[in-house]
Amino acid sequence: MKSLSLVALILAPWLCLAQTEPTPEQIAKFKEARQKLVEGLKPQKGEITLPGGIAKVSVPESLSYLDGNDAETVLTKIWGNPPDKEKPLGMLIPKDKSPIDDDVWAVLIEFEDSGYVKDDDAAKLNYDDLLKTMQKSSVAENKEREKLGYDRVDLVGWATKPHYDSAAKKIYWAKELKFGGAEENTLNYNIRILGRRGVLNLNAIASIHQLADIEKETSTILSAVDFSEGHRYADFKPGSDKIATYGLAGLIAGGVLLKSGAAKGILALLLAGKKFVVIGVVALAAFVKKLFGRNEPTA
């Protein structure tokens, strides 16, 4: 079956079918529609200037770049995520993979206009203590999710502990999440690049068993993506540019750990870009297995 974390299993036009056995005709139409969408994508190579000119991507040889329109098509029409009010800047995807391949993963590129994130707390951060704070907060968040009828989302721990390059102003980390009764845990892999007016968010969409694949590409991606001149961290103008209300700790926790110590809403922001929300995974698992006709990938 297609990885739960990749497709989100909430394809709106097909939700009504989850209550009944899908017919061969329905399965065929579903696959045909997705294939046409894939064929309409236009992967790009070379040096890409992102919308607004704020950053550039030198597309690595092992990856392809999809622009914002194509990235949105993959997210909403192929993988079935609900649309967001803001279009992503783009997406990186393995050049030899299709968005409908079982083992595909991708890195979504977005910009968060949060202001200049001070990194003066970097040296004193204890990532183990930060994890405990986030896990404690998730307990309360899960109670609210369950009241609304959604599955729990538990923060299992670091899949990769945070690493901060103070010279390049780039940080990456990965969380392991467990959705309800899902057999395989979800990988939430994050790369953040600090800039003058905000942060470039590079969020990997993948299953936990693909951690090694992404780790292999992390250094390549870190060197391939950066702010353009005038938008870099060093270009910050004190007194005129906005300063973010959080530091590195808040950035890692989801941008919500304010200096006051408040930790509301952390779990709601754990997923990549607040987009990949799995609703009713257990109920839909058998249905989607019929559609894809494949076995669940193993770790």
Short overview:
The chain is of the alpha+beta class and 299 residues long. It is 28% helix and 23% strand.
The end-to-end distance, rounded to whole angstroms, is 13 Å
- Structural class per helix/strand content? alpha+beta
Q: Percent helix among the residues? A: 25-40%
The number of distinct helices, counting runs of at least 4 residues, comes to: 7
Helix and strand run: HHEEEHEEHEEEEHEHH
Shape: globular
What percent strand? 15-25%
The profile of the biggest β sheet is: 7 strands, antiparallel
DSSP strand tally:
10
List the uncertain runs. Answer: 1-18, 255-299
Radius of gyration: 19 Å
Strand order of the largest sheet: 3-4-5-9-8-7-6
Number of domains: 1
Record keyword descriptors for this entry.
single chain, alpha+beta, 7-stranded antiparallel sheet, 3-stranded antiparallel sheet
